[in-house]
């Protein structure tokens, strides 16, 4: 959505003396700025901070949509915006007042991606600068943004920035270089079709549709209530094209919930896995905040007891709320690597491991700039420890589903394949359990993709204890 500024109102076109000009701040832009500031100064998560600010400030629907577009769009495009700004600011960007840098990004995003008329984008950002930083900084913001506007839109700026193939791809798709490399690697390494890689990265950057899961109600009833359509892969999924899912009575009651269709398939993987012998005890080893545990509780056969665990006490509490009203469930705050249960206690174990989240960037716009390649090795160590414990927790003949919301090879295939080298573990092919989902096989494991499946890039491996 691109819209002209609503304020400062009727006098907008008139020339005024800067000293006497009293801007009325634009609620949408101020809210978007506050999100950027929260992300950069307090490491806030945009997907948590923005809804909170929208609620507190009671913005109307139009302003709320514009604030969302500005905040998320600016965060996603940060790498490209910074590459442009670095050409126009004489100091290194890191030496700027962080508030000024955020304001420059917000203005530049409107100019290059939304094509807001330059006077509107520049004037509103200068007003915002005066209000949140002071008049001193407004001259710099004004001058730099005028140069951004003079350089044209995104495609003109990309041509100006130049760079080699991968650098250009990173800028064009709003990803850091190392994530471009990781996605290529996951899609097939050097034999990856460049057009598919670009499509995948663009899909990873696009705002996702909202997916619902019908947990304790028929899916058709949820589709009718929400005005959405049945999802193509999960028998429980409904895809929404708009609207606020939080207002739906079924979501409020817990009969349905918001859950990416890929996450639903990850839960279903555990439920569908072939098992020999008893099927009575399921474990969700990293359950917070309880999305997959909620689905497992709903789809388990009668008589199955579900234990849901999270190391973080507050996340375990969220699981408790997600499972409220369910019988035969137990929620524990515990470290999955030092389990309070006996070895071999469970028939099925879901390990939805903590990971870089590189497959869910579309819903967490700032994460791509916060993560670095250095985050990967400690996560791999944690994932490996948790998988070892998951395999110890499952009985002989039982199954472990290892899942990440990342396609990065080190935390997916490498972790699962290392475990599969043990002489008491066998790999079960994932694609066989999802014949209705094309293009899911990643060797014997499974991989969903935003550009193929319209889901997060979830990785899934299925391992069976053989002795
Ligand atoms: C990817 S999230 C799980 C998402 C969840 N399965 C869902 O669908 O809502 C990973 C979770 O693992 C938890 N975690 C991290 N280290 C852990 C550990 N050593 N033991 C148990 N849980 C852990 C984190 O607190 C986080 O809630």
TrEMBL record:
Q: Which residues belong to any copy of the SAM-dependent MTase RsmB/NOP-type domain?
A: 189-466
Biological process GO terms, please?
methylation
Q: Which PANTHER family match?
A: NOP2 YEAST -RELATED NOL1/NOP2/FMU SUN DOMAIN-CONTAINING (PTHR22807), RIBOSOMAL RNA SMALL SUBUNIT METHYLTRANSFERASE B-RELATED (PTHR22807:SF53)
Q: Which residues bind S-adenosyl-L-methionine?
A: 286-292, 310, 335, 352
Similarity comment text for this entry:
Belongs to the class I-like SAM-binding methyltransferase superfamily. RsmB/NOP family.
The name under which this protein is listed is RsmB/NOP family class I SAM-dependent RNA methyltransferase
Name the source's superkingdom: Bacteria
Judged by the first EC level, this protein's enzyme class is transferase
Coiled-coil positions:
none
Question: Is-annotated flag, keyword Methyltransferase?
Answer: yes
Pfam annotation, one family:
Methyltr_RsmB-F
Give the residues annotated as active site: 405
Region annotation Disordered: where it falls in the sequence: 1-22
Q: Is RNA-binding tagged as a keyword?
A: yes
Organism whose genome encodes this protein:
Blastococcus deserti
> One GO MF term, please?
methyltransferase activity
């Amino acid at each position: 959505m691109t819209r002209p500024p609503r304020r400062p109102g009727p006098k907008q076109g008139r020339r005024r003396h800067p000293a006497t000009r009293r801007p009325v701040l634009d609620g949408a832009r101020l809210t978007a700025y506050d999100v950027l500031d929260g992300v950069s100064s307090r490491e806030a998560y945009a997907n948590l901070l923005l809804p909170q600010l929208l609620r507190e400030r009671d913005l109307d629907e139009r302003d709320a949509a514009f604030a969302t577009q500005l905040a998320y769009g600016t965060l996603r495009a940060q790498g490209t915006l910074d590459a442009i700004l670095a050409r126009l600011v004489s100091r290194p960007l890191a030496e700027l007042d962080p508030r000024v840098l955020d304001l420059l990004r917000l203005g530049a995003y409107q100019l290059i991606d939304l094509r807001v008329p330059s006077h509107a984008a520049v004037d509103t950002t200068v007003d915002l600068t005066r209000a949140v930083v002071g008049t001193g900084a407004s001259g710099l913001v004004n001058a730099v943004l005028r140069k951004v506007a003079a350089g044209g839109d995104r495609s003109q700026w990309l041509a100006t920035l130049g760079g080699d193939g991968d650098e250009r791809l990173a800028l064009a798709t709003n990803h850091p270089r190392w994530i471009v490399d990781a996605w290529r690697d996951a899609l097939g390494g050097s034999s990856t079709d460049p057009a598919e890689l670009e499509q995948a990265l663009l899909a990873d950057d696009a705002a996702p549709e909202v997916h619902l899961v019908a947990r304790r109600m028929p899916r058709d009833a949820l589709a009718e209530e929400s005005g959405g359509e049945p999802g193509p892969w999960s028998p429980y999924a409904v895809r929404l094209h708009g609207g606020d899912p939080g207002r739906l009575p079924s979501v409020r009651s817990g009969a349905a919930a918001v859950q990416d269709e890929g996450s639903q398939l990850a839960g279903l993987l555990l439920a569908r896995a072939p098992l020999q012998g008893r099927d009575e005890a399921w474990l969700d080893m990293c359950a917070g905040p309880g999305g997959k545990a909620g689905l497992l509780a709903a789809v388990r056969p009668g008589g199955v007891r579900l234990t849901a665990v999270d190391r973080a006490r507050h996340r375990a509490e969220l699981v408790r709320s997600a499972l409220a009203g369910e019988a035969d469930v137990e929620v524990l705050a515990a470290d999955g690597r030092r389990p309070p249960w006996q070895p071999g206690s469970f028939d099925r174990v879901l390990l939805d491991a903590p990971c870089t989240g590189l497959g869910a960037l579309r819903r967490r716009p700032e994460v791509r700039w916060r993560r670095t390649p250095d985050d990967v090795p400690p996560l791999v160590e944690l994932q490996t420890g948790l998988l070892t414990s998951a395999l110890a927790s499952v009985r002989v003949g039982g199954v472990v589903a290892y899942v990440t919301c990342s396609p990065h090879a080190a935390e997916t295939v490498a972790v699962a394949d290392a475990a599969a080298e043990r002489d008491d573990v066998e790999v079960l092919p994932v694609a066989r359990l999802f014949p209705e989902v094309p293009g899911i096989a990643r060797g014997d494991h499974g991989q969903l993709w935003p550009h193929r499946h319209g889901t997060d890039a979830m990785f899934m491996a299925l391992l069976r204890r053989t002795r």
